[in-house]
Structures are given as structure tokens and as C-alpha cells.
Amino acid sequence: MIHYTQVSSEDEIFQIKALQQNNLAKNIAVEEAAEQGFVTVEHTLEELKLLNSEHPHTIAKIDTEVVGYALSMHPKFKNEIAILKPMFIEIEKYFPDANYMAMGQICIAKAHRGKGIFRGLYNAMKQFLPKGLACIITEVDYRNSRSMKAHKAIGFVEIAKYIADDKEWSLIALK
To answer: Which of 77, 172, 69 is nearest to 124 (CA)?
Structure first.
């Protein structure tokens, strides 16, 4: 049975890191990335812990195993991860005064995809976030069609398209 909760131990951070490593675009075949999706940003353990310290990440667990995660990235950390700086520049163009949470990355273990965990993580994240937030904002690499479809299916809407680091990104928001 899948249980949605927030990160509360270092072991869960280590499991997030391992799941991330298994799904980084650079670590999987091009065909697998096209079919299954991928994650782009490689966080250090220190970055994962820092982001978690402000607002704990949302995880999906089966017993003690983390099978999915959605990283919370408070806007105060907008300068901490270089590859995400362009996203925050875009957010500030469209939401200069908004109270929001950035979702830094979402990933589901391959063996558990197609079971509603993606939707479950976002539903849980919305419940765990502080009251009064206008929306959850994230970006998706346009080449990641599986992620684009999944985000649209649960209600994310595109705010803008932009180019950063030679990639085309979709800035999306969920209210």
C-alpha cells in the first residue's frame, strides 16, 4: 500500500538521491528517456537536505521504500541551484508578487509508474504546503513528453515557453 508523507529521515533523502540517479537523462538510454521520461537536475545530498529544511519534500512510500518524490523548493533558494535560476527569472516575470512553492523535481520508480503515484504526490504536496500559497510552479523540458502529458492531465497550465541551457522549457502552474 502506498503511503504519502514528508521526508523525516536522512535515509529517505538517500533514497531520493538513489531514485534520482536511476532516472537522470545522462544515466539512461535515449530510447528509455523518450518512452519513460527523465529527470534533468542532479542535486547533491547537501542541496536535498537544504531544500528539505525549509519545507519537507513529499514522498510516496511502500513500507520503508521511497517509490516516488516531489521536491519542495521554496523561492528563497532560487540562487542555490544554477540550472534552476532561469526558471525563477521566468517566474518573476509572470508572478512578481505571488506566494508560491516551486516543485523542484518529481520522479516515480519505474516499477511503480502508471499507478496514480504522480497525481498522489501532487495531491499530498498541496495538503502539506503552508496555507495561502497561490500555486505550485515548475518547469518541464519539452523533450520530456511523458512528464508534459502527466502534468497537463492533473491540471497544470502552461504559463510560458523559454530557452535556457540550450533546452526548451515549459513553465507550468497548478492552482
So the answer is: 69
d(Cα 17, Cα 95) in Å, to the nearest integer?
30
* Domain locations along the chain: 2-174
Give me the pLDDT at residue 98, please. Answer: 86
Task: Inform me whether the pLDDT recorded for 83 exceeds 90.
Answer: no
Q: Which of 152, 133, 8, 145 is nearest to 75 (CA)?
A: 133
Residue 104 contacts residue 71 (beta carbons within 8 Å): yes
- CATH T-level topology, domain 2-174: Aminopeptidase (3.40.630)
Q: Is the CB of residue 34 less than 8 Å from the CB of residue 145?
A: yes
What gap in Å lies between CA 80 and CA 76, rounded to an integer? 9
Q: How remote is the C-alpha of 156 from its chain's centroid?
A: 13
Task: Tell me the average pLDDT across 109-126.
Answer: 97
User: What does pTM read for this prediction?
Assistant: 0.95
* Residue 141 vs residues 40, 102, 106: alpha-carbon distances, Å: 8, 15, 13
pLDDT band for 155, please (50, 70, 90 cuts): very high
CB atoms within 10 A of CB 119: 13
CA distances from 22 to 15, 18, 91 (A): 11, 6, 29
